[in-house]
Design a protein that fits this description.
This is Reticulocalbin-3. By secondary structure, this protein is mainly alpha-helical. The chain has helices at about 1-20, 55-65, 65-75, 80-90, 100-130, 140-145, 160-175, 185-190, 200-210, 220-225, 235-250, 260-265, 270-285, 295-300, 300-305, and strands spanning about 100, 135, 180-185, 220, 255, 295. Bound molecules: 2-acetamido-2-deoxy-beta-D-glucopyranose and calcium ion (CA) (2 copies).
């Protein structure tokens, strides 16, 4: 029964993709990981896996700092998106010279990333917070995430879940700054985005070692780094992973990953991602190549920054009143 419900929902979804342009401002990144076990970087959906396809949703979220607003802008008439973007620019322009330099844009994007985490955490909190008191208890979390009902001890969870729950509990205790067993809003943000919170880094390191360091020497060898990825890895992939390990991850070239080498592999750098995004946005809009963006250049390329490239907003004109109180 569940299966068919799922299939049905899935088919509707596929149908919607087929019928129009997909505007996906997803926020389901909780604990999403790359194949090597690293936390997925915030821009992991900026390009398709083969790098062929560009998804402007990421750019829009980097400017608006909200999945929901980015989605809403997709349904605005271009003139309205431009009007609102012009207002945002005055806030982005820290020195009030009506131009946006690289530092101003980068600072803005870093601010957006923080707001995106907060929005994602807020959504997750609302899902988990069964009694709506704005905080999450461990029991609420278990019920929401693993479908475990704390009252009845009827759960017969398999080894995989047990392991995940144990790791979650360890994270939970670190995130729970005041040690009352319950996560308030700020504590919950650290728990749901541990990779973005310095206080969580030691526990991330500990858990990575627990997962990968099979011989217990507090370091991760190339073999341990590759473990658990199946035996049928193509030769090219193996070579490219070895190159990455030796040249990028193993910074002191001693053949193994330790401490900060492990963290800089597992924890994506929002600072670097923001820097790349600045380069990307400049490449698309700095028409006269003077390394500064005038408001005119940005507004000329407004759909690079916010809003849909396609004019499918007609159906959604009735949504516009949602924004009346925003800017
Ligand atoms: C820029 O303008 C804003 C708003 O008018 C003001 O608060 C801010 O202090 C100004 N910044 C500078 C560097 O002049
Ligand atoms: Ca400026
Ligand atoms: Ca607490």
């Amino acid at each position: 029964m569940m299966y068919y419900t799922f299939l049905y929902v899935f088919l509707i979804f596929v149908d919607r993709i087929g019928a129009g342009v997909m505007h996906s401002h997803s926020n389901d990144i909780h604990k999403e990981r790359e194949t090597d076990g690293a936390y997925s970087p915030r821009d992991h959906k900026h390009f398709s896996e083969d790098g062929e396809e560009h998804h402007s949703e990421f750019d829009h979220e980097a400017i608006l700092g909200s999945h929901k607003e980015a989605d809403e802008y997709d349904h605005l008439p271009p003139e309205e998106s431009k009007r609102r973007l012009a207002i945002l620019l005055t806030k982005m322009d820290l020195n009030n010279d009506s131009q946006i330099d690289r530092n101003e844009l980068k600072a803005w994007i870093i601010r957006s990333f923080k707001m995106l985490s907060e929005e994602e955490a807020q959504d997750r909190l609302e899902d988990a917070d069964e009694n709506h008191d704005g905080k999450v208890t461990w029991e609420e979390y278990l019920a929401d995430t693993y479908g475990l009902d704390n009252g009845e001890n009827s759960i017969d969870f398999d080894g995989e879940n047990e392991h995940l729950i144990e790791d979650d509990k360890t994270m939970w205790k670190v995130a729970d700054g005041n040690n009352d067993g319950i996560l308030d809003n700020d504590e919950w943000i650290a728990f749901s985005h541990p990779e973005e919170h310095p206080i969580m880094l030691p526990v991330i390191l500990e858990q990575t070692l627990k997962d990968k360091d099979k011989d217990g020497d507090n370091a991760i060898s190339f073999e341990e780094y590759m473990a658990g990825r199946g035996n049928d890895i193509a030769k090219e992939e193996l070579i490219s992973e070895k190159t990455k390990f030796d040249q990028q991850l193993d910074k002191n070239h001693d053949g193994k990953l330790e401490g900060n080498e492990i963290l800089s592999w597992v924890v994506p750098s929002n600072d670097e991602i923001a820097q790349e995004e600045v380069d990307h946005l400049f490449a698309h809009s700095d028409d006269n190549h003077d390394d500064i963006l005038t408001f005119e250049e940005i507004l000329e390329h407004h759909d690079t920054f916010v809003g849909s490239e396609v004019t499918d907003y007609g159906d959604h004109l009735h949504n516009i009143h949602h924004f009346d109180d925003e800017l």
